Amino acid sequence: MKYSFLCAVILSITGSAYAAADGNQESNDAWQKGVSDSLNETKSLNFQKLQEGVRGQAEAVIGNIQTSQIAESLHIADSPAVTAMSERLNRAHKGAIEATDESMVAKAKAALPKIADALYRGPKSPYFTTSPRGQDVITVIRAIPQASGDKRRELLLKIKQYSSAGFPEAVNFVGFIFEYGLFGAKKDGARALNLYQSAAATGYQPALYNVANYLYYGKGGVQDTSTADDAIRRAYMMAQDTSGRICGLGAFINYRSGNKNESLRYATGCTSTLAKLPMAIYEERMLPLERIRTLKETLGTGADDAFPMMRRIADSMTKIDPQLKCRYELMDRYRLNTDTQSAKAAATQCLNKSGTSDGNGRMSQDIANYVDVEIRSIQSERQRNQFHYSWSVPYLPFPMTETGQFLPLIEHKQQ
């Protein structure tokens, strides 16, 4: 009965609104004119009439609602039917709690998704660790680049002690020191790899990444793609690295190996620019120009794979835009060489091959200028990009914002 009455109240309010609108045609006309005038002058007389019309209709609707109807609808939750339903739900919940024993709780816990036992993250730490002192080790590591003199020597001594105790976070960092020859240590790639592998054997994710990174880029003089792929797969299966390094390297390795499905698995949802390579090539929903734009973004990483790919995509669009074909043909030819003089002649030759006349040479010059600007932009992006995709890492996640801590140390050694 009360539900029917509530519906009647709603219908009454709605009906009153329409009645007020129909019975106030003059006010409606004022609205329309007022809206038009207010675009030019919000303080016009018509705008004021519009406000009065709105106010009048609101008062008409409110006037049709009786106080008793409002009170009745507000107290509908106190009805016997609602009270009885609430009591039934409370009894059902209480019965379910009383019937739950420890075995049922254990089964529920067993059904929850699991994170590898070897992977531990402190309650307020974003860094991956595997040992009880892992966060302490990373805190020391992060303090070293800013320290100097006796303070730095003290911190390095702590790292040495942690490494001797077998903490994988410190073992991995000592490998990092030897790979780049930091803090007075002699550069020793073989020793660095050995230390990375020792830390990786404990299930330390950053060390697994470093093993994959070292072997894939052939830093010791020999590339081992198979072992690198296995190490990056194990790291990827442990947990998501929010810096995107692990999924990016996994996507890159498998893309270059021609493993379409695996490269897309790593690339999907990955924040690494390297992961855009397989997405641009294999993602069928991408339009040609979107593919070119995505591929162009990857050039800032230092990988040159996108140059010939952009050229092939542009070649397929020759009939639509011969300039596009010539732009990317020249970009692939010159890459990081900005010789615009020969580029203009090459552009003219390309246009002639495409059957496009360029009598005054303006189009050829535009193409040459475009190539020059684009190549300079890529060079600039590579210099600004501190992610350094071929670098090993002292810990993970190791985003671009933290790369700057070690950038001066490593660049100094590389010079």
Please describe what this structure looks like.
- The protein is about 65% helix and about 0% strand.
- It is built from 22 helices and no strands.
- The chain has helices at about 1-20, 25-40, 45-65, 65-75, 80-100, 100-110, 135-145, 150-165, 170-180, 190-200, 205-215, 225-240, 245-255, 260-265, 275-280, 290-300, 305-315, 320-335, 340-355, 360-385, 400-405, 405-415.
- Residues about 1-25 and about 115-125 have low confidence and may be disordered.
Features:
mainly alpha, 415 residues, disordered N terminus
Question: Given the structure, what is the number of helices?
Answer: 22
Distance between the termini: 87 Å
- Tally of extended strands? 0
Report the helical percentage. 55-70%
C-alpha Rg, in Å? Answer: 34 Å
Which range does the strand content fall in? Answer: under 5%
Low-confidence segments: 1-23, 113-123
Structure class: mainly alpha
Chain-averaged pLDDT: 80
How would a textbook summarize the main sheet?
Answer: none
Q: How do the SSEs run, as a string of H and E?
A: HHHHHHHHHHHHHHHHHHHHHH
- What overall form do the CA principal axes indicate? flat
